[in-house]
């Protein structure tokens, strides 16, 4: 299974993702510069955390217009996999691949911590290695991670079971309905604020995040 990790000016978690997919899971992985237009060789596109284009204007608002995002929208429409982590989640909402928006944290502070996260769905390729209702621990690091959607959008998300992860216990950023991650209707596009790639190596103190990637590999029969 071939992974592509998008690199924007300002990305800073791209190598972390590549370390997981390439070094820990032995999957072909290439870095995808934001000006690229041909990503047809990829099975999975990962939009990593960081500060794409310096997050000027609004988080993810400039990145959505990059050539690679136009190609990513087409990639997703073909049913291929897309994962947006932290800033990547913001980019996915700005690009219209996922509903809602990420706004300033409730207390207007940047948060860098570890957070308990409840797995709401295990019938996705991404989450099949988890147990339903399992609470995992993932790092978070964001200033604009409060998920917001209007009442109609929120009702549709809940009715369609598109909420994949919720913050458990204390809500760190004020996200509506404790939402930490959502998917599209098809389930091939996933956006989440917590960082699974930072919880994939036992040397870093936890491996709850690597199961996200392992689930995807298992779903397509790839060998890690």
CATH architecture: 3-Layer(aba) Sandwich
> Low-confidence runs (pLDDT<50, min 5 residues)?
none
Kindly report the oligomeric state of this protein: single chain
How many β strands by DSSP?
Answer: 11
- What can be said about the biggest beta sheet? 9 strands, mixed
**CATH 4th-level superfamily:** Class I glutamine amidotransferase (GATase) domain
Structural class: alpha/beta
Major beta sheet, strand line-up: 2-1-3-4-11-10-9-6-7
Distance between the termini: 10 Å
Shape: globular
The CATH topology is given as Rossmann fold
> What fraction of residues sit in β-strands?
25-35%
Number of helices: 5
Helix and strand sequence: EHEEHEHEEEEHEEEH
- Classified by CATH, the class is Alpha Beta
Helical amount among residues, as a percent range? 10-25%
Mean pLDDT: 95
InterPro entries: Class_I_gatase-like (IPR029062), PRibForGlyAmidine_synth_PurQ (IPR010075)
Subunit structure: Part of the FGAM synthase complex composed of 1 PurL, 1 PurQ and 2 PurS subunits.
Keywords: ATP-binding, Cytoplasm, Glutamine amidotransferase, Hydrolase, Ligase, Nucleotide-binding, Purine biosynthesis
Protein name: Phosphoribosylformylglycinamidine synthase subunit PurQ
């Amino acid at each position: 299974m071939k992974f592509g990790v998008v690199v924007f000016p300002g990305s800073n978690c791209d190598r972390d993702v590549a370390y997981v997919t390439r070094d820990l899971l032995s999957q072909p992985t290439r870095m995808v510069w934001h000006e690229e237009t041909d990503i047809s060789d990829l099975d999975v596109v990962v939009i990593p955390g960081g500060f794409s284009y310096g997050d000027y204007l609004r988080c993810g608002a400039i990145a959505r217009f990059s050539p690679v995002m136009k190609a990513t929208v087409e990639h997703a429409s073909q049913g291929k996999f897309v994962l947006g982590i932290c800033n990547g989640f913001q980019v996915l909402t700005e690009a219209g691949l996922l509903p809602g928006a990420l706004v300033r944290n409730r207390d207007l502070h940047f948060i860098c911590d570890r957070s308990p996260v409840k797995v709401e769905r295990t019938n996705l390729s991404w989450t099949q290695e988890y147990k339903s209702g399992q609470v995992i621990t993932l790092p978070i690091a964001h200033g604009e991670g409060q998920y917001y959607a209007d009442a109609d959008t929120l009702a549709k998300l809940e009715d369609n079971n598109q909420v994949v992860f919720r913050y458990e216990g204390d809500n760190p950023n004020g996200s509506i309905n404790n939402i930490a991650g959502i998917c599209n209707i098809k389930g091939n596009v996933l956006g989440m604020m917590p960082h699974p790639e930072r919880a994939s190596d036992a040397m870093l103190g936890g491996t709850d995040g690597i199961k996200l990637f392992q689930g995807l590999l298992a779903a397509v029969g790839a060998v890690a």
